[in-house]
Amino acid sequence: MLTRIMATPEGNESTHLRILDAIRAVPRGEVASYGGIARRCGLAGRARLVARVLRENDDADLPWHRILRSDGRIAFAPGTRQSREQARRLRAEGVLVRNGRVRMAAEEDTLHAAVWAPR
DNA sequence: AGAATGACAGGAA
DNA sequence: GTTCCTGCCATTC
After folding, report:
1. A66 vs A4, A85, A101, A109, A115, CA distance in Å?
2. Per-residue pLDDT tens over the stretch A67-107
3. Rounded to whole angstroms, how far apart are CA atoms A98 and A12?
4. Per residue in A19-33, pLDDT tens?
């Protein structure tokens, strides 16, 4: 039956690409959360899918370091090589990192933003 | 099939 | 401010 074909809007290649695009769209000096990226792709609740895409990514140009947990923490365990590399890259573009954490914009895609944002 | 595993999130304590 | 705990989604054993 054809239901099976259309029944998987995610998990396919285009979803993967949309996520990568959303990550590339995060401006230099700014950050976004895994869940935020997912929402922007119409994939609410799939933060872990974004994490998976990042893990499997090999593109050196992808600004992977701009993606943080929703509370602003770097996802890698503190002290690890990757965690420090991420902090280094963020600071290199002017982002303040303190104790492996970044102050999140506090709005991103939250209800607060939806209600209060201009436009 | 059931359990374990993650570059997660959100709310409770 | 924390840390802890539960819920989630998708994949792998």
Report:
1. 36, 12, 12, 16, 25
2. 999 999 999 999 999 999 999 999 999 999 999 999 987 65
3. 37
4. 999 999 999 999 999
A63's CB contacts (< 8 A; 6+ apart) are A23, A24, A26, A28
Nucleotide of closest approach to A103 (CA, C1'): C1
Give strand C nucleotides closer than 7 A to any protein Cβ. 2, 8-11
Q: Would the CA dihedral through A79, A80, A83, A85 be positive or negative?
A: positive
Protein residues closer than 7 Å by CB to strand C: A 10-11, 45-46, 48-49, 52, 99, 101
Cβ atoms of A67 and A50 within 8 Å: the answer is: yes
Structure tokens at A88: 């280094």
Q: Classify strands A101-102 and A97-98 as parallel, antiparallel or unpaired.
A: antiparallel
Amino acid identity of A19? I
Q: What is the pTM of this model?
A: 0.85
Strand duo A32-33 + A67-68: pairing = parallel
